[in-house]
Every structure is written in structure tokens, then in C-alpha cells.
Amino acid sequence: MTSHKAVTLGLAGTGRIGTSHAETLKNLPNVANVIVADADPDRARTTATKLGLEFAPDLDTLFAADLDGLIITTATASHPELITRAVDAGIPVFCEKPVAANIEGTLAVLDHLQNTTVPVQIGFQRRFDAGYQAARKAILSGSLGWLHTLRATTLDPTPPPADYIPHSGGIFRDCGVHDFDIIRWVTGQEIVEVYATGTNQGDPIFTESNDVDTAAVLLRLANNTLATISLTRYNGAGYDVRLEALGSKSNAIVGLDDRSPLTSVEPDYPASPYPAYPGFMDRFRNAYTDELTAFVSVVNGNLENPCPPTDALEAFYVAEACELSRAEHRPVQVAEVRH
Fold first, then answer.
1. What is the per-residue pLDDT across 104-128, written as a single tens digit (0 to 9) for each?
2. pLDDT tens digits, one per residue of 91-102
């Protein structure tokens, strides 16, 4: 039976993405109430006051609020505890990636979840973007023929704050993981081999953190399709996230629109009159809304979980393989890093 119950949702974490999610949630159908909390109570109170939401001074108060669902946008280190605490209380969870800071932590959470049917949805918002959904449909329908090449980009215009870099997990786990997930999702194929390399020409904090500010990845999929991924923290032209799916019959390009930060130097080719996307919040605004709308449907039992933690683990394995490849300067089979 379809349920249209108006739900009460808790939101843990009122940083940039958490505050954006809170603003989206308050305007969604079937959301009666949103209660926000943060490790910094003053920040949570400010967010609640600004958005006209309910404020919880701490997590214990939040969990005592008879929640129908919990959205987790806190720092990564707190994800495992919050996920398992919510699930043990019978509260469905939406958690921004990653599930945990490393594979061992992710596996521990998955092991805990084996004993429950409470859904945990992981935040890979690209799955809800209209362009990626159209590319998936084209690929799986066979209308492109057999795929020979995928080309993906995630090019940030500026780096995250310097104090974030040492705790980010590195460019493959923090940034490239979105590309790994979406390539698996649009193709229905597993990534079986990677070769990854990277360089630093920007802030010394990347080198000091054993990270890179720019990376290139070559992937081989189980069906022998080849994929390349370009990543950087320094794409000054704007936020550039695209996917090119090239087949024996046709192709499908995601992210190619009037706000793509691409400058053609061909004679007589008109420049776009529109500003480039400044960041991921603008580029994926509709996808974030649709993702949270889906979670409300999951909470109400009207939709199967569209992004379970097992998918997050698979993308994490590819990121781990990329780190090993970069460190050892060699191709790495993803099977090498599986636990």
C-alpha cells in the first residue's frame, strides 16, 4: 500500500551541504518537520532560526524526537556511529558519502546492517541528475551500440579549505569516487582494473598530505570498455563535470550545456552568454532535490533504496585501487584491494 505520511526528519550536521539539504527538505511534500543538530550547537541554532526549523541542542535530543528518518551530513569520522545508532533505533538513514573513512570501517557498518531491514541510502546525487539518467537509459537500451570509450571529468574551480585536505581521504576517495560510482551505475558494469597517476602544482598542502591536486585515471570495465577520468582542484574556468559515453553506433554526452566552462577557440563559434557553474551545489541542485525526495519515498516504504551502502563500498574499492596504483606506479586489479 502506498503511504503519503508526512514525516519528521532529523538532520545531523549543519555545514554547507547540511544547510542546503535542510532548506530543500523544508519545502518537500510529505515532510512535516525537520529538526537540525550539530556538534556545534550555535551553528545548528543559527541554521534552524534562519530556515524556521526546529533545533536540537545535541544528538541525544535529536534521537529522542520520534524521527521517521535521519539525514547525516556530519564529518566522515562520525558516519559509522550515527548510521548504526539510527538503524538500531529503527530509523531509516540518508548519509552523505562515504559510509566510513576506510574500507575496514565500511565493512564493519555493512556487517552491522546484515541484521536489519532498515534502509540506509548513500548520497551519490549524480544518479538523480537527468543527464546521467538519460545516458544510463541510452547505454542499457543498446542504442549506442557497444561502448568503446567513456570519458569523465570532475574539475573543481578551487580547492577545498586547506584544513580539509589532510582529512579528505585524498582526491580519489573524496572526489573521484563520484565518477567511479556513476560509471558503474550508467553502464551496469564493474570496474576491474585501474591505472592512476597524479601531480601537484598548487598549494603545498596537497604534497604535505600525500595527496595530489590533479589526477588522471584509466579504467577497464568487465566488458572491456575503457574509461578515462580527469580530476583537478584547480579548474579556474568553472565547475566542469561531464561524462562522454561513446559507442559503436552513437554517443551520449552528460553535462554539455550553456553553463559548461568550455571555451572554443574555433573561428566564428559563439561564446555562451551564460556564466559557468561555480560549484557542485549549482550544477546538481535539481539532483539533490530529487535525491532527498527519493529518500522520503524510501522512508514511507514507497521506493526501494536507490543507493545502498554496498554500492558505496564498490566505489570505495576502486578509489583504494587508484591510491595503490598511484603509489606503486602500476596497473592494479580492483580484486587486489577487496577484503
1. 999 999 999 998 999 999 999 999 9
2. 999 999 999 999
- pLDDT of 21 above 90: yes
Per CATH, the number for 7-126+288-308 is 3.40.50.720
The pLDDT value given to residue 223 = 97
The Cα–Cα gap between 229 and 254 comes to 14
- The DSSP line for 202-214 is S-HHHHHTT--SE
12 vs 36: CA distance, rounded Å: 6
Find out whether 257 and 282 touch, Cβ atoms under 8 Å.
no
Helix, strand, or coil here: 7? strand
Nearest to 186 by CA among 285, 252, 284, 282: 252
Which residue is it, cell 524521527? 67
Which phi-psi region, left, alpha or beta, contains residue 56 (left: φ > 0; alpha: ψ -120 to 50)? beta
Would the pTM of this model clear 0.85, i.e. be above it?
yes
| Cell numbers given for 70 | 535521519
What is the residue whose three cell numbers read 558516519? 79
2 — pLDDT class (breaks 50, 70, 90): confident
CATH architecture of the domain formed by 127-283+315-337: 2-Layer Sandwich (3.30)
Among all chains, which residue has been given the C-alpha cell 551505475?
185
| Distance, CA of 98 to CA of 88 (rounded, Å) | 20
Q: CA-CA distance, 149 to 244, in Å (whole number)?
A: 8
Of 17, 60, 97, 16, whose CA–CA distance to 309 is shortest? 97
